[in-house]
Amino acid sequence: MALVPVVGIETIPAWLCWLFPMIGAFLTPLLAKINPKARDYGAVLFSFLAALMTIMLIPLIFNVEELPKWEILPWIELEGFPVLSKIEFGILVDPLSIIMANVVAVISFLIMVYSLGYMKGESGLTRYWFFMNFFIGNMLLLVMSENFVQTLFGWEGVGLCSYALIGFWYRDAKEDYLKCWVGEPPEAYPPSHCGMKAFITTRIGDISLLIGIVIIVAFTGTLSYMELIEKVEHLPHEFMWILVPAAILLFGGPIGKSAQLPLMEWLPDAMAGPTTVSALIHAATMVKAGVYLVGRVFPIMYVASKFYPEMISFFYVVAWIGVITAFVAGTQAMTSNEIKKVLAYSTVSQLGYMMLALGVAGTTVEFFLGYTAGVFHLMSHAIFKAALFLTAGAVIHAVESRFLHHMGGIKKEMPITFWSMTLTAFSLMGVPVLFSGFWSKDLVLESTLLAGQPIMFTLAAITAAITAFYSVRMLSLTFLGKKSEHIHELEHEGHHIHEAPKVMWVPYFILAVATLAFGIGGITLLPFGGIGGWLEHTFESYLSKLPGMEHSFALLETEVTVPKDMAVLITIGTSLTVLAIGAFIAYKIYVQRAIDPVKLIGSKGILKSLWNFLFRRWYINAFFYKVFVDSTISFSKWALKYIELGGIDKFNYVLANAIKGFSNRFRRTHTGFLNYNIIGMITGFILLLIIVYMVMV
After folding, report:
1. Is 73 helix (H, G, I), strand (E, B) or coil?
2. CA-to-CA dists, residue 73 to 144, 230, 653, angstroms
3. Burial 609-636 (b: 16+ CB within 10 A, else e)
4. Where are the alpha helices (DSSP H) in 262-367?
5. Are 361 and 369 within 8 A, CB to CB?
6. What does pLDDT average to over the chain?
7. What DSSP character marks residue 224?
8. Helix (H) or strand (E) holding 580
9. Residue 184 and residue 189: Cα distance in Å, rounded?
10. What is the pLDDT of residues 204-263, one digit of tens each?
11. What pTM value is reported for the model?
12. What is the DSSP letter of 548?
C-alpha cells in the first residue's frame, strides 16, 4: 500500500505548535525592553499557545484510520545530485507524534508557570525565557518532523538549549555550592562545567547518529520516514546488510540524548541547572527525544527484518542497553545524597525501561504490546517525574540546600508538596492500582516476558525493587523524621520553612492529580482495557496498515513458552513482590529507623566497599575523566613542554637568532663609503651579465 502526503486544515496546529514558542523566544528581548512582566508572562503565553495547538491534534488520534497526515514543502533543490534530488520541509501527524507533542507542550507550559515563582528575582531572566521557549520550539519541531534533516535541526537545537540552561548559573560561585553545584568531592562540579559536559557527551552520540543517517540516505536515496518505510523492502538484497550497522550507529544518537550506557553520566551532573530546567529537559522532554526517535524508526527497521533477519540484532542492542542502564542507574540512586540527583539517576533508569520495551518489541511477532509499553511508560514517566522535580525544587527553595541530609521533618510545614511528591513517587515505584507507573511498568515487564527474555525480565524486576527502595528513602529523608541541624540553623536565623507559593505548587499538584487520573484510566477492566489497552489497539490499527507492516514478522531467536494469561499473572506477582521487598527494606531503615544505615555499612568491609562503588557511580564517571579528560590534560601538558616550548618555540628562537646573526654580519658590508658602493654596483652588474649570457647560451 502506497502512502501519499495529505494536506488539510488538520495539519495547521502541527505547524503552529512549534512556531509559536520559536516566535516567543525571539520576541523575549523585545518584551524585556518594554517591561519585565511583559517578558515573563509573554514567555508563558507562547508556551500556552503551543500546548493549545497540540491539544487540538488529539481528536485525530481517535480517527486512526485517516492517519498519518503529513504535509511537505520544497525546501532545497539539489539538481544533478544522483542520490538525493531534493530536501523537503514537512510535518508528520500520527499517533506517536500527537502523543509526544502533547507530553512536551502541556508539561512544558506547567513548568513555565512554575518558573514565574521559582525563578523570581534571578538575574539573566531574559536569557532564561529565551532558551526555555526556544527549547520547547525545537523539541516540538523534532517531534513533528517528517524527515531526518528536519529532525536534526530540532535535535541540535535542544542540545544547544540544554547546554545553555544547564549552565544558566555560569558564574560558578562557590557560595552557590548548596544551590546549584552538583556532586560531592572528588566529583563536585559547577554549572558551566556540567553544561559543557552535557554538550560534549551528547555530541558523541550525535556524530554516530549523523553517520547512520548518511549511510541510510546513501543506499535508499531518501530522508523521509514515510518513504523509507516503502523503500526499505525494495532495497537490493546485497545492500540489506548495511542497514544493521547503520541502524546501530543511528541508535548512538538516542544513547547520548537519552543518557544510556555508555553515555549516561552527563545527565546526573546536569542537575546543576535550575530545577525547572531539570523538570523540562531531563524529565519530560529532551531525554525522551532518543526514545521517540527509536519509536519513529521502529517500523522502518521492523520491515527490514522481514527481508534481512539479521536486523533483529539492532533490537537486541536496544533492549540490552536499556535494561542494563536501568539496573546500573537504579543502583546509583540508592546512595546519592542529593534530592535532584536521586531523581536524575531514576530518570536514566526509567529511560532504560522504555528502551527495553521498544527493543523486545522488535524481536517478537506481536510487537504491538512492547511498542505500546514503551510509549505508555514515556507518557506516564513524563508526568510523574516532572512533578517530582518540581516538588524537589520547592523543597530546595525552602531549605536552601540540595542535600538530603540538610532536610527532614518538614511534612507539616509543606503538606501540599509532601503529598504531591508522595503520590508521584508511588507512581514511580509502581504502587497498584491507582498510579500510572504501575500499569506502564508492568506492561514493560509483561512484554519482556512474552518476548522470551527471562534474563532481561529478571534484571528489570530487580530494578523495580531498587526503585521502590530509593523512592521510600528519598521521601523519608526529605519530609519525615527529625529536622536537620541545617534547618534548625535557618530557623534560628529567622527563616522558617513554609509551603511553596501558589504559582509553584499548583503546577505540580495538577501533575500529581494527572498521574492518579492516568492510574485510574489504566485499569484493564475498563473499556478497551484501560489506557494501555486503548493505546495498544491504536498502534496496532495504525502500524499494521503501513507499507510492508501487514505481514512483516521478525524472527524470534527464542520461542515464547509463556502463554499471555500466565505472563500477566507472573508479571503482576513479580511486580508486587519486588515492590514489597524494596519498600519494606527502605521503610525499616529510613522510616522506622530500626536500623542505622551508617552502622550497617560500617567503616570498612564488603558493605562499605559496595556503598563506595555505588556512590562513585560504578566508577564509570571516574573512568571517563581518567581516560579522556585527565589523559587529554596530561597530553596537553606534555605537548606544551616538549613540542610547543621544547620544539616549535626553540626552533623559532634558533631561526630568529640565525637571521639576526646573518643580519648583523651583512650589515657590516654597508660601510657608507662611496667607493665601496660603486665597487659593489659594478660587481653586481658583471654578475648579472654573466647570468644573462649563460641563460641565452
Report:
1. strand
2. 14, 20, 61
3. eebeebeebbeebeebbeeeeeeeeeee
4. 266-269, 275-279, 286-307, 312-333, 339-361
5. yes
6. 90
7. B
8. helix 564-586
9. 8
10. 999 999 999 999 988 888 888 988 988 888 888 777 888 899 999 999 999 999 999 999
11. 0.90
12. T
